[in-house]
Automatic annotation (TrEMBL):
Cofactor needs: a metal cation
Transmembrane intervals: none
NCBIfam families with a match to the protein in the record: PRK06349.1
Organism (species): Streptomyces griseoruber
Organism domain of life: Bacteria
Active site: 206
Name recorded for this polypeptide: Homoserine dehydrogenase
Enzyme Commission designation: 1.1.1.3
Length: 432
């Protein structure tokens, strides 16, 4: 074993960074054996140097992250500060000064992954980011390496723990969105400003990364269709239960049937209780992968939290250190397929539409005609007259598979009917 240590610079020492430092210290001997050389924490860049950090030598702490990555003797920079800047500049500076990079930064990878990979290639360095998607769950490496000989057709996952906790609470208790969010906040699952999670920005970034790797093509954050889950109601869960379904916020990346394009989207959807993703409870994450040869695979585990995310970072650190010792680099970006990313209108799926309609002769026929005119075939219809005598009824229509554009056209036309008082909800039905 080499005795000269590999030097690691840690950018950020919050929930994840402090766990990375702790594991590097407590597992130092095992990590050295697995890598073939000791790894040494050579510097820790933080914003608040006065904060006490157990187990970290204060002499290593600096507020000058730029000077740290420019030192020239750093082998690996671990970036766990998040956000676009200064993370992007620090990472590219690290490559230029001879370091490889391990990052957990989903927003940056989703927005600028191609440029970062190009910078890593230019300098012959590694860029690894297992922790950027679904925390501890091994996913990037299985998609990038283990399944590199297969053809992936679909990746469908629950990649945000906060929203899964909220939806699971609504499902199991009948609570409304706000009540479930309040509980998630009180228990520390949701941040004070939960926008990134509940409006699905976080999940969209992860979908972009997964789609790019799965389909060997470039998918940027802007290519991902995104709908948050703040409009999901207790009534939607009751409808889902009637259909033998639950509701999950799903990230879905698909190859088109003709193989010539891909789509990536994040939105709430009904999913049958028999689907493996339906049983993912609480703040857990899971990703269901469908490929030509392997068939169906499911990856499941904790998608957030200090120690679980640090586990993924440490796995990358070991891989990158091994590469450094052997003078090799791991797989870089694979975007040779260069497939176009189709708009949401091209996505084909099933829909559950809940309408408030006038309860009088001919209304059902009128509604059915609108569906027919837009080429959307109805699978089931359920009508409940209201007992309050207001002359209205709830009409629930479940369609066969249709394009999102056809469904949007249908809903637009339905809204124009005098007899349709309102469109209470539209929910996609997946996983059948
Ligand atoms: N807020 C994210 C989640 C953290 O709830 O899954 C991990 O990206």
């Amino acid at each position: 074993m080499r005795t000269r240590p590999l030097k690691v610079a840690l950018l950020g020492c919050g929930v994840v960074g402090s766990e990375v430092a702790r594991i590097m210290t407590t597992h130092a001997d095992d990590l050295a054996q697995r890598i073939g050389a000791p790894v040494e924490l050579a510097g820790v860049a933080v914003r608040r140097p006065s904060k006490v950090r157990d187990g970290i030598d204060p002499a290593l702490v600096t507020t000058d992250a730029t000077a740290l990555v420019k030192r020239g003797d750093i082998d690996v920079v671990v970036e766990v500060i998040g956000g676009i800047e200064p993370a992007r500049t620090l990472i590219t500076t690290a490559f230029a000064h001879g370091a490889s990079v391990v990052s957990a930064n989903k927003a940056l990878l989703a927005q600028d992954g191609a440029a970062l990979h190009a910078a890593a290639d230019e300098h012959g360095k590694d860029l690894y980011y297992e922790a950027a998607v679904a925390g501890a769950i091994p996913l990037i490496r299985p998609l990038r390496e283990s399944l590199a000989g297969d053809k992936i057709n679909r990746v469908m996952g629950i990649v945000n723990g906060t929203t899964n906790f909220i939806l699971d609470k609504m499902d199991s208790t009948g609570a409304g969105y706000q009540e479930a969010l309040d509980e998630a906040t009180a228990l520390g699952y949701a941040e004070a400003d939960p926008t990134a999670d509940v409006e699905a920005f976080d999940a969209a970034a992860k979908a972009a990364i997964l789609a790019g790797i799965a389909f060997h093509t470039r998918v940027r954050l802007d290519d991902v269709y995104r709908e948050g889950m703040t409009e999901v109601t207790a009534a939607d869960f009751a409808s889902a239960k009637n259909m033998g379904c639950t509701i999950k916020l799903l990230a879905i990346c698909e190859r088109a049937a003709d193989g010539g394009s891909v789509t990536a989207r994040v939105h709430p959807a009904m999913i049958p209780l028999t689907h493996p993703l339906a049983s993912v409870r609480g703040a857990y994450n899971a990703v269901f992968v469908e490929s030509d040869a392997a068939g169906q695979l499911m990856f499941y585990g904790p998608g957030a939290g200090g120690a679980p995310t640090a586990s993924a970072v440490l796995g990358d650190l070991v891989a990158v250190c091994r590469n450094r010792l052997s003078g090799a680099t791991g797989p870089g970006e694979s975007a040779y397929a260069a497939l176009p990313v189709s708009p949401m209108g091209d996505v084909v799926t099933r829909y559950h539409i809940s309408l408030d309609v006038a309860d009088k002769p001919g209304v059902l026929a009128q509604v059915a005609t609108v569906f027919a005119e837009h080429g959307v075939s109805i699978d089931t219809v359920r009508q409940h007259g209201r007992q309050d005598g207001d002359g209205e009824a709830s009409l629930v229509v479940v369609t066969h598979r249709a394009s999102d554009a056809s469904l949007s056209g249908t809903v637009e036309a339905l809204r124009k009917l005098d007899t349709v008082r309102g469109v209470a909800s539209i929910m996609r039905v997946e996983g059948e």
